[in-house]
Input
Amino acid sequence: MPPLRELQNELLEAVCAVDGAAARPAAAPRVAVPPRIVPAHGLLVYRANVRANFLDSLHSSFPALWRLVGEEYFRQLAREFQRVHPSRSGDLLHVGAPFPAFVAERHRGGGYDYLGDVARFEWLCQEALLASDHAPLDLERLRSVAPADYDALRFELHPGLRLFASPYPVRRIWEVNVTGEDSPEIVDLDAGGESLALLAPQLELKFHDLSAGEFAFFESLRGGAAFGPAIEAASARDDAFDAVAALQRAVGAAIIVDFVNPGA
Amino acid sequence: MPASAGIGLRAPHHLELLRQPPRVAWLEAHSENYFADGGAHVECLMRLRERYPLSLHGVGASVGSTDPWDREHLRKLARAIARFEPQLVSEHLSFSSVGGTFANDLLPLPYTEEAVRHASDRIRELQDHLGRQILIENVSSYVRFADSTLSEWEFVAAVAAESGCGILLDLNNIYVAAMNHGFECRDYLAAMPVGAVQELHLAGHSRVEIQGQALLVDTHGAPVCEDVWALYGAALARFGALPTLIEWDTQLPTLAVLEAEALKADALREACDAAAA
Output
């Protein structure tokens, strides 16, 4: 009798096969011929489940992309994606993580470059919505910091903060496609790109348009930079960067939620 | 956990459950749906948890797999248990992964002595990791292994005895497997150890035809059928009153429909109690 692992391999390969081979009993010779079921039919049920569960997860993570490209093409994309990136976890929630890169690569150079950005935006929205929340920053604590310590402050960003930039008006594309209207407005792809902070404090998804300086500032903070070096990085990108205004805005929007003062 | 009927918690019902809590005795949530660090689903379950007794029911741990455990999955499961403090925790007696690839579906094990030992070892490991007893559910199946040397009920009973886990007996799964593979549901029930069975599942299934041949598929997308209600009566007679779940996943109806199915289960249980008294 073959060992358990061999039997498991055979059945899993048969049900996960994306070509037609699994529909033939020869593909899984040890799957029994029961009195009432043709094994190929049983395998088809599992294969349908494997595909449907995977597709459902992608659909719920990327509803705007689904609407943009239509069900038929989305299904085709999902099937191709599943072949390259089969699920590696018992929790399907994360199965779509490599999907934006896959969609981007698949449409690079054509007239549909923006599809990858839409997928990336949707994935970041999901991440923001599933992150833990954090209480707002205690402003009194911040006010009590000595000016000499400012440059070395290390700010903590909201756990759900995601930064997004695209040459396309992706947020608008997303909005008109998740509202569910029958005739969504036509979005001008050349209407200009965007840089956004997105996060969901108190369970509500919020978007904040960022200047080039602010984007660089939050990127630096996220990379572990202290306040001083983050200001430098932002100013290098944007002459008009105003650190005090950026900080006030970030605290008000719960983008910055805490800090450590190494000088204290 | 109350020995009466609860319903499966599904995200489309979250808000309605909070606004107009139905008269059901308890809720069962799929563990993985509440694995996130935060967010609306986690928040909702925290609030529902205050009102209803809770069971956490896992579909993704791949208990019967010959792969090493997915440690991240176990960490999140342990965190969900610590967070939501469920009365019952259950998983499936099946596998869904080999070589790191997941089918994300419940695949049957071969019913062999080797598989009994392996599944029992894994369940013991999981129970040790979680610091509590778990229940293990029998699954529907559409294929069998030629190498099986035990019946499915011998297999389930042996794993429960060897691992010390409880049994979550899904009566619809027994029915679907019985119809597909050709065995008697009552033989299955008679082999289940009284005392080990701590929860029952009721659900609907679909009959599909592939190239003119019918088979039953466990879709959780229809009312409980009459034959499964009859099986419920037989289960109550054998095991006594138990927490009983109405499970519905596809073509999800309104909460009122689930509540009505739960009330029907409770009425049947009360009738059995009265007959026994």
